[in-house]
């Protein structure tokens, strides 16, 4: 049976928040939904944060995501805007953690690099690449939606890289035994399973 995983991508914002849901089945990924939450009609900043929190809970209740991927705020000259954006991100993260959903953050450059191969790609270039990948006919009206989709897909790609690394075959020196599907976080952890390698290193 092919496993299924739902990823919720978020492009945080206090005026417009983008969100997207993708479904991963085996080696294939499908778009479920991509849209935005407009908050410009609400004047009070804290009221907007409340709406973001409630909307995230509704999305979680509806789609039951296994993971949440969110764009991390980048450094900007306007300190007040950065503060508000950080709050929006924090509220979205809190909603996911409230429902015990693991959260993963990615920088804008990392997301663009993952989707287009270029960390300096424009939002339009990212949107065009996503359209090719998911084969939808019309681009969403707001790029915030495609930004959120890019975050979700970036997380999927990062998981694929980790899975590939964990499938590396490690052959023990001086033994015919081969161990598959094991990874090591560093030389020290590798030596615990391969003490003979430490002796060779000392020589």
Give me some keywords for this one:
single chain, 203 residues, alpha/beta, Nucleotidyltransferase, domain 5, 2 domains, 5-stranded mixed β-sheet, two-stranded antiparallel ribbon, 7 helices, 22% strand, disordered C terminus
Structure description:
By secondary structure, this protein is α/β, with parallel strands linked by helices. The chain has two domains: 4-166, 2-Layer Sandwich (Nucleotidyltransferase, domain 5), CATH 3.30.420.10; 169-202, no CATH class. It has helices spanning 45-63, 79-98, 108-116, 123-134, 143-166, 187-193, 195-202, and strands at residues 4-11, 16-25, 28-38, 67-71, 103-106, 169-171, 178-180. Helix 6 crosses helix 7.
User: What sequence of helices (H) and strands (E) makes up the elements?
Assistant: EEEHEHEHHHEEHH
Tally of individual helices: 7
Which residues sit in consecutive blocks of at least 5 with pLDDT less than 50? 167-191, 197-203
Number of domains: 2
Strand content: 15-25%
Rg, nearest Å: 21 Å
Spatial arrangement of strands, main beta sheet: 3-2-1-4-5
- Class derived from helix and strand content: alpha/beta
Mean pLDDT: 83
Return the CATH class of the largest domain: Alpha Beta
CATH H-tier superfamily of the largest domain: Ribonuclease H-like superfamily/Ribonuclease H
What is the percent of helical residues?
A: 40-55%
Number of strands: 7
Could you give a short description of this structure?
With 203 residues, this protein is α/β, with parallel strands linked by helices.
């Amino acid at each position: 049976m092919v496993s299924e995983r739902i990823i919720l991508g978020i492009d945080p914002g206090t005026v417009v928040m983008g969100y997207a849901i993708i479904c991963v089945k085996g080696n294939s990924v499908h778009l479920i939904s991509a849209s935005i939450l407009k908050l410009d009609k609400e004047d009070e900043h804290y009221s907007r944060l409340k709406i973001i929190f409630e909307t995230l809970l509704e999305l979680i209740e509806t789609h039951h995501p296994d993971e949440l991927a969110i764009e991390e705020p980048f450094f900007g000259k306007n300190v007040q805007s950065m503060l508000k954006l950080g709050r929006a991100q924090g509220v979205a993260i809190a909603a996911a953690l409230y429902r015990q959903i693991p959260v993963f953050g990615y920088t804008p450059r990392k997301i663009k690099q993952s989707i287009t191969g270029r960390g300096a790609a424009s939002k339009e270039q990212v949107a065009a690449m996503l359209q090719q990948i998911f084969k939808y006919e019309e681009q969403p009206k707001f790029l915030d939606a495609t930004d959120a989709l890019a975050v979700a897909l970036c997380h999927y790609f990062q998981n694929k890289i980790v899975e590939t690394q964990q499938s590396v075959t490690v052959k023990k020196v001086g033994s015919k035994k081969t161990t598959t599907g094991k990874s090591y976080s560093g030389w020290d952890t590798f030596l615990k399973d391969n003490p003979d390698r430490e002796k060779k290193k000392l020589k």
